[in-house]
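Standup notes
- HV: blocked on the assembly model, inputs below
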Amino acid sequence: MDRDIRSDVPLGRRMPQATTRIVVADRNVITRVGLRSILERNSGFAVIAEATSYDAVLDAVDEHGPDVLIIDLDLGDDTTRGFKLVEEISDRYPQTKVLVLANTLSEMIVVEALRRGANGYLCKDEVKADELGKGVKAVQDGETVLGKGVGKLVAHSLGSARQANERLTDRELDVIKLVAKGLSNKQIATQMFVSESTVKFHLQNASKKLGAHRRAEIVHRATGAGLL
Amino acid sequence: MDRDIRSDVPLGRRMPQATTRIVVADRNVITRVGLRSILERNSGFAVIAEATSYDAVLDAVDEHGPDVLIIDLDLGDDTTRGFKLVEEISDRYPQTKVLVLANTLSEMIVVEALRRGANGYLCKDEVKADELGKGVKAVQDGETVLGKGVGKLVAHSLGSARQANERLTDRELDVIKLVAKGLSNKQIATQMFVSESTVKFHLQNASKKLGAHRRAEIVHRATGAGLL
DNA sequence: TAACGACCTAGCCAAATGGCTAGGTAACGG
DNA sequence: CCGTTACCTAGCCATTTGGCTAGGTCGTTA
């Protein structure tokens, strides 16, 4: 943990008057412009690049080595891609802090993002203008920033004793997607080239992980968790 | 229809060099700032007020009588409230054009908004910066503006022969919400103080309206339609 | 008044589901 | 080599479901 070094070094000296260099990643123009406006309102922040795709994020971080990456995990169809990206960046570019800025608030997503190395998680609908700057500064200083509602979720996740069991496997997710389309176990089995027993098996496991008891609830929870 | 008058009057004369006066309604600061930035980039647009709640929208429109209201229908917990608001405004303030700016794209929501009097429907993740200004101008001129993906949805809605049957009743929605929570028909019946038969009845009707055959699919579709 | 829509109830039956136990394989890392 | 994880299969049984037909009350609207 290199944030421990900080206590040895006076804060003001490390970056005298430096502006925080930021890359913004969001598929939404309005959000990108808004972020830029809000952040550059107080000097001290400079948005040096914008990205609208997973690849572009990687390129931008690689090229500019920003202090902070503000990213909406949902840059494409593949939700899991966002997580991988966070992991990759916090792995390969530890000097770049990752601040996730999400549309929705889902326990599973928050926890997963933090687990993969995100340094902060804010919710678009929740943040006030001044909190943005503070958040960016904070993650840059090595703190972990959680938005108001986000904190509760994380606490809840720690409280309930499910640590390892909550992640769905690929297969389970496949089955759930077909369930959501209204297929019966038999139909799903046919489509996946497995037996009906296997389908039931995956659904049972998914049920336990999601804390659901009926397929309708499974679909609902998976949707809420952004898995679908 | 007073847009017919337009053909009698040269466009340039009616509003010589006038700036378009806009009210922006969105609970999200970033979006509000972003919109303002993008729109006021070209002079000709002035954001004269912002609102973050349904009541505030009404106040702002009443006070300023803007040319265009740009609104995200999702300003609170109550989804239907947004629709009522659109209806009220297009009823009482016909000179104010309503341009809906939504996060998600759902056939039912688009159709409902337009039915209630919205003059345009754009999707945040879809619009490009220049399209915003054009869209605002267009609705102000009495045109109906639909974003790229939005048009297809509306076409689809017109094509499929379900006009009247697609709207869920309050009761049906109540049942669906409980189904999504994983309750059985019996449990739902108890909670709603009706018989199990009634619950099944509502679900059968909802199934037909949504084109679903299993409760898991009902939940999925209702979610996708933003009803949940 | 009659028609309509939303709401409520009942019963039937085949099919689907949920919840369980009890097996199996293959791949990976300690 | 052993433990773990993901994956696959089988069978049992009570309960739930989907889909149907056939009634009923209200309140609004034509």
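- HV (later): unblocked. The beta strands of chain B are 20-25, 45-51, 68-71, 97-102, 120-123, 145-146. Residues 207 and 213 of chain B are 6 Å apart (CA to CA).
- Next: hand off to the docking folks.
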